[in-house]
Structure formats: C-alpha cells, structure tokens
C-alpha cells in the first residue's frame, strides 16, 4: 500500500536531485568553456552533442541513486548520506566510461568530466541536506503526531514500534499502555510504560503529542474515556479502525507505514500552512502598525486625558496549546474595577447558555451598559480600536491576525473537554465567529465555528475573514 507521506518525500528528493544535476551540468560547462581558466585549453562549447547525451547521463544517475537505496525515506546521518552519494558517483563514472568506450561516435571533454563529477557530488549533497533541514524544521513547527503512546498490545503495535525504531515513519513511538502486563515488561519487544489510567502522567513525562489505540477490541466505553482524556489533556487521539469505521464522514483517516488510523480531525494550521500564515501575519501586522500609528497615538492621548491610569490594559490570556501570554489592549475601563460582573457573565455564557444583559429573546450575549467603561471606552470598543495593540502580540508570535479569541484563565476553568480544541491553533484578533453572528451566537456555537475554522484553514479564507471583519467593524456592532 502506498504511503502518501513517504511518497511526497521521495518526490521532494527527486526534485532536489534533478536541480542538482542540471546545476552541476551548467556550471561545469561554463567553467570549462566560458570561464577561460588557465589550466584548460580554450575551445568552443559543444552544447549540441552534450545536450544529446544529457538524458542518458541523467537517466543513469537516477537509476544508480535508486538502486543504491538513496530514495528510501529514513533518518540518515550526514556522513552516511555523503558516503552513499560517493559510491553512486563512482558507479556512474564507471558506467559512463564503459558507454564511451563501446560507443566511439561521441567524444566527451575530459575537462568537463573532471569538473562535473565533484560538482554533481557537492550540489546533490547540498540540496539533499537542505531538504532534510527544511523537513526537520517543518516537522518541528507543525503540531503533528511525533512522539506517541500506543494503547493495547497487538501486531499493529509491534509493527509501528519496529518502524519507529528503524526511523522509517514519522512517528516516534515511546512505548505501550496495557492493563494486562506489569510496568517495565515488554510485549514482543515493545516496552510497557503503564496502564491507560496512567496516560496523562506518562504523556507529560515523555512529552508525547498523541495517543494511538492499536487494539481494536477495546470496548466502546474505554475508547470514549480515552478520547475524553486526550481532549482534556490536549493530546491527539487516533485508533486503528475496524472496516465499518472507515465509512465515518467527520473522522480523519490517516495512514502510517501502511496502517490506517482513524482520528479526530485536527487543525490544518501546521507545516507549510503555518509558515504561510505566520509570514502573512508579520507583513500585514507591520503595515497596519505603520499606517494606523497616528490613530493609535491619538487614542492613547485621549485615554490619558479622560481618565487616570495607564494607556494600555494588559491581561493574562490562554493561547495555543493552553499556554498563557500577556494580552494587550487600549484601556477602555476605569482602573481597579471589580471583575465579578465579567466572571458571572462568562460563567452563565459557558455553562448555562445565557448571559447577563440578554435581550427579550435571550440571545444577546454581551454585558450591556457596562458601568466600568471610561468616557471614550464605548467608542473604541464599538469600532474595535481597543484591539489595535494586539498587532504587537501578533509580531511577538503570541497571536495571529485571525483565529479563536484567547480566553481569560478563569473562563477556561469552566470549559468542557471539547471546548479546549480552540487551543489547537494560534489565537486571533478576529475570527470566523466574529463575522458570522458576532454577539448573537451562543458560546457552543462560537466554539464550533472556531473548530471548523481550524480544521479547514486556508489562506484565501483568512483573506475573506479580514475583508468581512472590516465591513462588520464599520457597519455593525464590534463586540
């Protein structure tokens, strides 16, 4: 069975080898015939016969690399990679010399060959090394299944452990959780770290990112408990499914080393997508800070003149992966005010689906006529001007322009397990629910929109949300 993860990396290596070969060919031709090096006799570059021989040279080179095992996607030391390329280059040289010996119709330039071979080795090693560095960087950036725990002894567990040990899949399997065996023992070579009841403690101890249930015979209640535990602990959860489970629409079907995994669909902001999103954030946030700096300076002055206290309001908020950061806003309230009003409001909003200040239909979830506001506070809130300092949070990497709004720690205390899926991506200044109903949504509806945004993120969607945010801020209530 084809593995898309491995196939993509093989194609990437092939692209690296193609670029390195063509670059070595062009540079060798230039140095031999156009650079006028003193130790080479001048001559006219024989482009036509050399280009005719290019497909043969290229085909032989790729065939040698493939037969030497250099398209196997595994973790190699740099020395082993270099040694494999040297061996392949020697084989290529021998084959090409044999072909020129038996076919006298083509006379090659020895100077070109002397230059081409070391250049081919150097460029190929460089591009392959660059590929592995970029791959490692992307894997470290993306919130993906790297270090995992397996639950349930089975042949699949043994298979995944073996591939992990050989470095032939993207998983780093730490060990197995199993009730029937004692801690410290092994099942077919897989170490037993404890029972499923020890999941949270072992995940923290070994810094794992996910859990894979490899025993499909676990009862439904145990699987549900494991899934809830993983959600609460911000761990990825997957299982090796039975055949009928592959028909589920909302599930994420993944594959590792030929083993199908059924899991909860996770955030799409990872790997290359995260790099694109972060680059866009930096560029746009910088431009907005420059363009809006006069407005921000004026607001800061008005705040200082209209009330006592600092211009900026800082507060600890909960961001990606549940990590706390210092959140910035223009101060819109009097200093030293009591936060009990907001605590009561959010508790009702999250736990009861109602809030203080709801209208006659009970659907407006925002505190009305807040007595804590300073004279300019209502205005800068209405047009979201108080949020502009969060552009600094974006540049620092605490936030993104678009994403779930970061909650206050006391709000998270009353979250249900699935609510914490909001933390699977960077928090944002604006988001999908802000342009899909604003303050006229229940909390559960807000969270569902946040999760839907994370699962289906795309760059064009971010552009649409930014555009719609501008319209909502200017022509609607900006809560």
Which secondary structure elements does this structure contain, and how are they paired or packed?
Blueprint: H1 4-34, H2 47-67, H3 78-102, H4 110-141, E1 147-151, H5 155-166, E2 172-177, E3 186-187, E4 190-194, H6 199-206, E5 210-213, H7 220-232, E6 236-239, E7 251-256, E8 259-264, H8 272-306, E9 312-318, E10 324-330, H9 340-351, H10 377-382, H11 390-396, E11 400-402, H12 409-412, E12 428-430, H13 443-455, H14 459-475
Parallel strand pairs: 1-2, 1-5, 2-4, 5-6, 11-12
Antiparallel strand pairs: 3-4, 6-8, 7-8, 9-10
Helix pairs in contact: 1-4, 2-3, 3-4, 8-11
| Class computed from helices, strands and strand pairing | alpha/beta
β-strand number: 12
Question: Percent helix among the residues?
Answer: 40-55%
- Please count the helical segments: 14
Arrangement of strands in the largest sheet: 3-4-2-1-5-6-8-7
- Strand content bin: 5-15%
Unreliable residue stretches: 244-249, 355-365
Order of helices and strands: HHHHEHEEEHEHEEEHEEHHHEHEHH
End-to-end gap: 51 Å
Tell me the domain tally. 3
Shape type: flat
Radius of gyration: 30 Å
Mean pLDDT: 79
Largest sheet, in brief, is:
8 strands, mixed
How would you describe the overall organization of this protein?
The chain is 49% helix and 12% strand. With 479 residues, the protein is of the alpha/beta class. It folds into three domains: 4-141, no CATH class; 147-264, 3-Layer(aba) Sandwich (Rossmann fold); 272-475, no CATH class. The strands form three sheets. An eight-stranded mixed sheet has the order 3-4-2-1-5-6-8-7, sandwiched between helices. It has a two-stranded antiparallel sheet with strand order 9-10. A two-stranded parallel ribbon has the order 11-12. β5, α7 (220-232) and β6 form a beta-alpha-beta unit. The longest helix has 35 residues, at 272-306.
